[in-house]
Specification:
Blueprint lengths: L3 H9 L2 E4 L7 H9 L4 E4 L7 H14 L5 E4 L1 E3 L2 E2 L11 H7 L2 H18 L3 E2 L24 H18 L2 E7 L15 E2 L3 H8 L1 H6 L5 E4 L3 E2 L13 H11 L5 E4 L5 H4 L4 H11 L4 E2 L4 H16 L5 H15 L6 H29 L1 E4 L8 E8 L8 H15 L7 E8 L5 H9 L5 E6 L6 H13 L3 E5 L15 E3 L5 H12 L14 E4 L2 E4 L2
Parallel strand pairs: 1-2, 1-12, 2-3, 3-6, 6-7, 7-9, 8-10, 9-11, 14-15, 14-16, 16-17, 17-18
Antiparallel strand pairs: 4-5, 13-18, 19-20
């Protein structure tokens, strides 16, 4: 009979934890050494600069009893952890808007190469969700498109580029998060697609790519056409074992999305959900919680084996799948030293290519771009707590450069920034509009269809401003709520690189080359906007 210590080690290989800071803390170091966890997912709070993050990855790897899995969500756009020192990436939708598949693959390979040099061996990308709900609060521009075929093609290229660069890609969020209208971080979203809808929309990218994928992430989405009562796909035997493992015959690693999300913990609790996820057929558990919690998860899994609820054979099979998946991506110390020597040159080259992609992504959704070369333009920017959207700073930087090149043209151009709440009150709208009457206005929107105050502000600006231009800084569907604007651009991305690219288009003469990768013709269904597919 296997000893308690050996069971803890086998269970530990199936658990990824989370670190609290820039250094490897004593508790997590001990869990790694004992094999209680098999690796970690790193976040922005773990990375100050490339040197520090490289040392952290070295410490994790050297402390771990198992071959440590070191993973990160570095998707681009709205979700990237280390864009403050690695190459910032455009969002998936922005990359799709460039129409350049080679550029998409190149940038995926570039960030994977940079992450491998730092010490990572797993990239939690690409997002393979097909965006079929215009007010989806969690996927949005993380998706390439609303076209299953386009998502399939770009996912395939991205997966191949990540593998070639030496990381394990993890396609997500199986079986598809694009049709939902809730965020699984806070609630359990429901996919109301029929089985036929799932087959022809959400499952298309997986049907196309599964043979080339070493790992898949299961999502916390209730498929009401499969499960009668609310149960996340990540905890569903019918979805994980029945559809993914048996029907599609997927032999790679199945990894859960983070089990600390409220879609899971509000009903089942973290430790219980971990056991349920293994019962459903997952191999690897994302437990992005404090060390005490990951330790409890390990203990609960061991108890489940001892009680007969889980079998030791099942845990060993999952551990073997993980070994088979990650063993080819092991790096020697010598390989890491060489890769890190080349990192500076890679960053210099790829940052330029990435900014170019953000410029090429910008698309004209309606009308034209007015001449912005003189006068005082009011720039209205949503005061988002996560995305600062410092477009005025980027405009001023472009203006500074332009004044040297074209002294006369921009002599009298000025910008005045007004920040507004993402969902402003009527009183705030009234105050802002009073400052914009008969003035030139650049109106930046962020998911306006989900924020009625923002729609009201946009309508009032359109009615009262003189010259005006709207910019959809995330989902292009904002266009539907801004009928009063004759001129509308889209960046498909709220990141600072996208704001820099926008400034370059408006003031530096960069051409507008992007094409919107989603359909902007809609029907109303169940109270939400849904495209015709």
């Amino acid at each position: 009979m296997t000893s308690l210590q050996e069971l803890q080690k086998v269970a530990g290989k199936l658990i990824l934890g989370r670190l609290p800071a820039f250094e490897l803390d004593e508790h997590n170091s001990s869990l790694l050494e004992q094999g209680i966890i098999g690796g970690v997912v790193l976040f922005k709070e773990n990375g100050r600069d490339a040197l520090q993050l490289s040392q952290l990855c070295d410490d994790i790897r050297q402390s771990s009893l198992h071959q440590a899995i070191i993973a990160v969500d570095e998707e681009g756009g709205a979700v990237q952890r280390f864009d403050h020192f690695l190459t910032p990436l455009p969002s998936a939708m922005a990359l799709a808007a460039t129409g350049d598949t080679e550029l998409t693959a190149r940038l995926a390979g570039a960030i994977a190469t940079e992450l491998r040099a730092i010490g990572f061996n797993c990239l939690l990308a690409p997002v393979m969700d097909v965006l079929s709900n215009a007010i989806n609060p969690v996927i949005a521009t993380r998706a390439y498109s609303d076209s299953p075929q386009k998502v399939s093609l770009l996912s395939e290229l991205t997966i191949a580029a990540i593998v070639e660069a030496g990381l394990v890609p993890v396609g997500k969020h199986f079986p598809g998060h694009g049709s939902t209208d809730l965020d699984s971080h806070f609630d359990l979203p429901e996919s109301k697609l029929s089985n036929m809808g799932l087959w022809h929309v959400d499952l298309v990218p997986y049907r196309h790519c599964l043979e080339k994928m070493p790992a898949v992430m299961s999502g916390h989405i209730w498929l009401s056409s499969v499960e009668e009562f609310p149960l996340p796909a990540s905890l569903s035997k019918r979805v994980i074992k029945g559809i993914l493992r048996e029907y599609f015959n997927f032999q790679g690693v199945i990894m859960t999305d983070d089990l600390t999300m409220k879609a899971i913990t509000d009903k089942w609790g973290l430790a219980e959900a971990a056991v349920m996820a293994l019962e459903a057929g997952n191999d690897l558990l994302l437990v992005c919680a404090a060390a005490e919690e990951t330790e409890k998860v390990n203990r609960h899994i061991v108890n489940a084996v001892q009680s007969g609820r889980l079998t030791e054979e099942q845990l060993v099979t999952s551990a073997q799948r993980i070994d088979l998946c990650f063993a080819p991506y092991r790096q020697t110390d010598e390989e890491l030293v060489l890769a890190r020597k080349n990192l500076k040159a890679i960053l210099a080259r790829e940052k330029s290519a990435s900014l170019n992609a953000s410029v090429r992504a910008i698309s004209l959704l309606r009308g034209k771009v007015p001449d912005i070369s003189s006068g005082n333009w009011v720039v209205l920017v949503p005061n988002h707590q996560r995305y600062p959207m410092k477009v005025v700073a980027h405009l001023l930087e472009c203006l500074k450069r332009n004044k040297y090149a074209k002294k006369d043209k921009y002599l009298n151009l000025q910008f005045t920034e007004i920040r507004y709440q993402v969902d402003p009150s009527d009183a705030e709208v009234k105050q802002i509009v009073s400052e914009c009457v008969e003035r030139n206005c650049l109106f930046l929107s962020y998911r306006a269809l989900s924020n009625q105050g923002q729609l009201l502000l946009g309508a009032c600006i359109a009615e009262n401003a003189r010259e005006k231009l709207a910019v959809c800084c995330d989902l292009p569907y904002d266009l539907l709520g801004l009928p009063g604007f004759e001129n509308i651009l889209a960046t498909f991305d709220p990141s600072e690189q996208a704001m820099q690219a926008l400034a370059m288009v408006l003031l530096a003469g960069e051409p507008i080359l992007g094409e919107c990768p989603v359909n902007l013709e809609f029907q109303m269904a169940s109270g939400s906007y849904r495209p015709f597919i």
